[in-house]
Amino acid sequence: MKNPTILISGASVAGTTLAYWLHRHGFTPTVVERASEVREGGYKIDIRGAALEVVSRMGILDEIRRERTDVQGGSVVNAAGKRVASMDGDTFGGRVHEDAEILRGDLSRLLYDLTRDKVAYLFDDSIASLTDGPDGVDVVFESGKRATYDLVVGADGLHSNTRRLAFGPEQQFVRDLGYYVSIFSVPNRLDLDRWELTYVGAGRTALTYSTAKDTGAKAMFLFSSEPIAYDHRDRDQQQRILAGAYAAEGWEVPRLLEGMSSAPDFYFDSLSQVHMDRWSTGRVAVVGDAAYCASPASGQGTSLALVGAYVLAGELAAAGGDHEAGFAGYEREMRPFAAANQKLGPANIKRMVMRTKGQIRVAMTMLSLMRFLPGKDRMMAKVVEPIHKAATAISLKSY
Asked: What does the UniProt keyword field contain (predicted)?
């Protein structure tokens, strides 16, 4: 293939990063996005390890640092609102070395601005059907448009439409970890100044934080549950589920929940991972959460998206447009890295959501005593070590 045309489904972090690198390697990418524009807002995310090198090679690391959340610290509170323990922002967020924290929407905007004049974006549309043939992929869009591309890549998240069309039903690949997450913007009634407060109940965690980039605040909820059947596009149903799950909780939870009905960025989903035996079939591949979602509990979803997009574009370029060789190289380079980061999710969530009141009492006692314990810095370093090790578990090639 000469100057291959590649359709990317999803203007996600993975999708826009992939578009950037494909264009840089001489491909012709097009991004189709169901939303009317690149999504603003969202929660704070971390860019760690190898992903820092990717954004550095893109020339946007300094901009990312200028857009940092600048969260100064965090505290764990009890039901009465008393601060049981406090620590600095990097320790509270599990960050080490040069890790960068930024709002997801700010990163999305930076990536879009980097590509908007070089890449065709098709907003308010999505893929309705794919027909993979020997000479290309025939695509029918929901708008009724038709086009043929040399390759198609799904960068459309946990509930990937591309993966469903090319590989099969979602239930074959998505593994529910037994927890649910919700996050949305709320008024900053607690007058937080770049600070995070976390409340822990039995099977229920709630937190709220403010950042340097936001005059309001964000509220986040994590709770354990048996699988819940719900419509991924039915916001009212999701809000009823969330309200029911936290009906018996104290602290600021009732007031935080009041903000969900008017929040412009309400998000609710299961904490799940994606496990696939292969990330490509014919001329179609998947990247980021669509291929190897590690769940938000891993803290590595954004870094996986950035690195995965870089590697996929690079391997396709190194293969001279031979998509079979390029896809094989992508899997060879990325699988160990994806596996190492997916291991973080199940381990992290057990520390974030505690099952019993007994566990909570022990944890609160330990946290309250932490500042008096000798060697506390070494103890915290041991907690952060697995994250840093996973974040650096790949040596990036120069393509």
From this structure: Monooxygenase, Oxidoreductase
Which tens digit of pLDDT belongs to each residue from 179-237?
A: 999 999 999 999 999 999 999 999 999 999 999 978 899 999 999 999 999 998 899 99
* Global pTM exceeds 0.90: yes
Classify domain 74-99+177-271+359-390 at the CATH topology level: D-Amino Acid Oxidase; Chain A, domain 2 (3.30.9)
* CATH number assigned to the domain with residue range 5-71+104-174+273-345, chosen from the 4 options 3.40.50.1000, 2.60.120.830, 3.30.360.10, 3.50.50.60: 3.50.50.60
pLDDT in tens, 139-177: 999 999 999 999 999 999 999 999 999 999 999 999 999
